[in-house]
Amino acid sequence: MNIKDRLKQQWKHFARLFPRAANAVRWFARIMFFIFLIDIGYLIGVWPQWKWFTEGDIPKSQFIADYERKAKLNPTMGRLRWQPVAIEDISIHMIRSVLAAEDSRFFDHQGFDTEAFKKAMEYNWERKRFIYGASTISQQTTKNLFLSPSKNPFRKWHELVLTWAMESNLKKKRIMELYLNVAEFGPGIYGVEAAARRYWGKSAKTLNEDQAIELAATLPAPRNHKPSTRTQFFLKQTKKIKRNLGIR
User: Fold this and answer.
1) Which pTM does this prediction carry?
2) Which of 69, 121, 137, 201 has the most CB atoms around it within 10 Å of its CB?
C-alpha cells in the first residue's frame, strides 16, 4: 500500500470514529481553499507590469499616495516632500550607508537574507520581544511600491511573492534606485533627495559621509528618530552604521 492509499484509509477510519470533527475539518479545508482562490485573484489584479519598472521615471509608491490623500484632508500633516532622482544623482556615501544599515548582503542574495533573518530572530528570542525584523532592501521596496500601508494577515505573503518576482525582473541597481526614492525619511518626506534638502539644504548627490550615515540611521523609525530630533535611538543607529562601515 502506498502512502496516498494509507492516508485515505486513515482518514476514513478517523471519520468513522469522529464524524463531527471530520466534518469540521472538511469545512475548514473548503473555506481555506476559497480564501486561497480569492487571494490568488487579488495577486493577479495587483500584479505589476514589470517592464514599466525596469527603467525610466520613479513611480509613486502606495505609501506616498496614501500620505498625499491624507494630507489633503488634514492640512496639519504638512505638504508632501518627494523629488525622485536617478541613482547617478545620489551620493555613493548614501548608497554605502544604506547597505551598512539595512542590508549588507543586498548584492549577494536573491531578495531574501536567511542568515540575517536567523540572527534577528535569535536576538528577539533572547530579549523575549520583537525588536528587529530582517526585511531586505528588496522586500522593503516591494512593500512601499505595491502594498497598502494597512496591515492584514496576507501582506507578508504578498510581499514575499512580489519580492521574488521583482528580483527576477529588475536589476539590483534599479531596485536600489527605487528604494532610495520611495523610502520614508520623516513625516511626509520620501526619497533621499527630499530628505537631503529638508535636513541639510543640499542635493542628495552632494551628501558627505556623515550626512549620509545620519539619513540611513533615520530609516528604521523615521517619524520620531531623525537628524532633527537626534534621539538616543538615532545616535545609537549612527554608531552602529559607522561600525559596519569600519569607521571609528
Assistant:
1) 0.82
2) 137
Which pLDDT score, from 0 to 100, does residue 130 have? Answer: 43
Q: CA–CA separation, 203 vs 212, rounded Å?
A: 11
Q: Which residue has the higher pLDDT, 26 or 200?
A: 200
Whether residues 7 and 97 share a domain: the answer is no
CA-to-CA distance for 112 and 144, rounded, in angstroms?
A: 16
Rg (CA), the chain: 23
Number of domains in the chain: 2
**Same-domain pairing of 164 and 87:** yes
Predicted confidence (pLDDT) per residue in 5-30, tens digit: 777 777 677 677 777 877 777 777 77
Q: In what order do the strands lie in the sheet with 189-190?
A: 81-82, 189-190, 184-186
